[in-house]
Amino acid sequence: MTACAIETAAGDGDALWPTPAGPGGFTITANGAYAARLAGSGDALYVERWTLDGPEPYAVPLPLAQPEEPGALLSPLADGRVLIGRAVDGRRYTFSLLYPTGPETGELVLGAVEPPGPGRLVLLPPSPDGICAYAMYVGADTTTLWLVAGGAFGPEQVAEIRGRCSGGVWLDRTGRMLALDRRVDDGPVKAVAIDLERGGEATPLLQITEESNDRLLLADPDSGLLLIRSDAPSPGHDRLGWGILGSLLPVRFPDCLRLDDAAVTPFAVQPAQVLTPESCAVALRIDAAAGSWVGMWRPSARRMRHLAAPTGWLAGAGLWTASGVLRLPYATAGVPCGLAALEEPAEEPPPEAEPAVQEPRVCRPVPLQQAPLTDRKPAG
Length: 380
Prior knowledge:
Blueprint: E1 4-5, E2 27-28, E3 34-41, E4 44-51, E5 58-62, E6 73-76, E7 82-88, E8 92-101, E9 104-113, E10 122-123, E11 133-138, E12 142-149, E13 156-162, E14 164-170, E15 177-183, E16 189-195, E17 201-204, E18 214-219, E19 225-230, E20 239-244, E21 251-252, E22 263-269, E23 282-288, E24 291-297, E25 305-307, E26 319-320, E27 325-330, E28 338-343
Parallel strand pairs: 1-21
Antiparallel strand pairs: 2-3, 3-4, 4-5, 6-7, 7-8, 8-9, 10-11, 11-12, 12-13, 14-15, 15-16, 16-17, 18-19, 19-20, 22-23, 23-24, 24-25, 26-27, 27-28
């Protein structure tokens, strides 16, 4: 993934980009079966697990004797348990697994992690294997990864990576290959692939130009589709683009994904589209002064479809079915656990064109194909 192609000329307006992060407190397992969030209000917060793969979604509260802190770290596992990380004394974090047991909440204490310096520990997105969970700490010059659930003896450090990392996108279905956005010293941000079975060995993943900041937002292992944020086409101003994992084809930056005065953030890709990345449906969260709504787009399309989100949408959360239905979780006073289904609107037939006036046929020069900005093949 090395070259850059711009489908249309960049406009004057610049999109507003939020910091890459998960949806506000609502996390879904990689297989879409469960989700978890902090529910309640004020100081009476508790963990709530959602079941999403049944005929109807339902929520199970997992309260303990003491309420949870607003900054608690949550990650659901594929077996229905919920990992929770709690900060102690500002630096040390304890991890436990919560699960329903009759009318009570069971808690299995896993152990603790103490980062080597000041700063906050963050959880990475749920692992595709549904068993493991990883936490990341960013220091002054290095980034440390811990396996906090799924290990044999409690939390353990699994990798120390040179540079300051952010993001976190899984590149396979086994939970071995992880993409992180890394900055080394004062250089640009570049997405790298981390091999967790080889001690966190890092190899380049995105290199559009030498000086561009190239971040990976989403990846679909089935099709190889990548959603990328980069300032390569317009230095100093980020654009949303797409590419194919392991391909030498250029990254493309469609103009339809760029909105003036709005942030456009992809959050879900249609699965099971094996080797057909151009046909994958992508869901995007659009945030503007007027509020938030949903965008739907496919790489093969020339435009993005805009749809209203359900009332109470847990903005930025959702998942596609293999058949192309987007399911969005929402919570309201009347429906505390809901899942709305959105389908992509049918394409409208193009208007009938008026008969064209026949012009004399003339020879036209064949336009030169734009050369790639670099031809280095990425790892992955």
